[in-house]
Amino acid sequence: MPAAAAGYQSLRFEEDWKQICDRVGPKCRRIGETATLTLGADARMRAQYYGPNDFGIGAGDDGHVLFRSLAHGDLRIGRAVQAFVQFGVHGEAGRAGGPIGTDRSSPELQQGCDPSHDQPGIPVVNAHPADASSLGRD
Questions:
Q1: Local confidence pLDDT in tens for the 138 residues of the chain
Q2: Within a domain: 4
Q3: Comparing C-alpha atoms, which of 135, 95, 91 is closest to residue 114?
Q4: How far apart are CA 15 and CA 21, in angstroms?
Q5: Residue 100's domain spans which residues?
Q6: Residue 17: phi, psi to the nearest 5?
Q7: ∠ CA 42-86-131 to the nearest 5 degrees?
Q8: Which residues make beta-bridge pairs with 75?
Q9: With the C-alpha atoms ordered 98, 108, 38, 114, is the resulting torsion angle positive or negative?
């Protein structure tokens, strides 16, 4: 039902759930006459298995599981103002030699933006400035 009513998009901040705010409950809240706050979260798990490595020469099987949890909030005031933030935490289990740098994190800002303006690019705020990017519109 929500997919037909609001439409899922490639980028979370492009989704607009305000038309079903009164029916969804905790996912979307009306704030006054023209403002809405939409909340969401998802959890992902990926299992990877390699076996045998190096074409079976002197190496055994290897496998591990990666976990990722994300939570986001989208505040919209009328048609002109929008603020979007997404926080995430990552984890790992079972990697031979222990976790690598990208396997684990404390809760951090994954992205934050103001996609409501008409500028050619949408600045994305990232907790790691070296990884920051800009998402453009056609």
A1: 344 445 677 777 777 776 777 665 567 888 888 898 988 888 999 998 877 766 767 667 778 999 999 999 999 888 888 888 999 999 999 887 888 887 878 888 888 887 765 544 444 444 444 444 444 433
A2: no
A3: 135
A4: 13
A5: 10-136
A6: -100, 5
A7: 115
A8: 37, 83
A9: negative
The string of DSSP letters for 62-119 reads EEEEEEEEEEEEEEEETTTEEEEEEEEEEEEE--TT---TTT---SEEEEEE-TTS--
Confirm whether 55 is domain-assigned: yes
96: Cβ contacts below 8 Å, ≥ 6 apart = 62, 64
CB 107 within 8 A of CB 88: yes
Question: Could you give the count of Cα atoms lying within 13 Å of 100 in the half-sphere of its Cβ?
Answer: 6
CA 29/CA 76 separation, integer angstroms: 11
- Domain count of the chain? 1
Tokens describing residue 100: 């690598």
Per the domain annotation, does 36 fall within a domain?
A: yes
Q: Is the pTM of this model over 0.70?
A: no
Q: Identify the CA nearest to 67 among candidates 29, 28, 23, 105.
A: 105
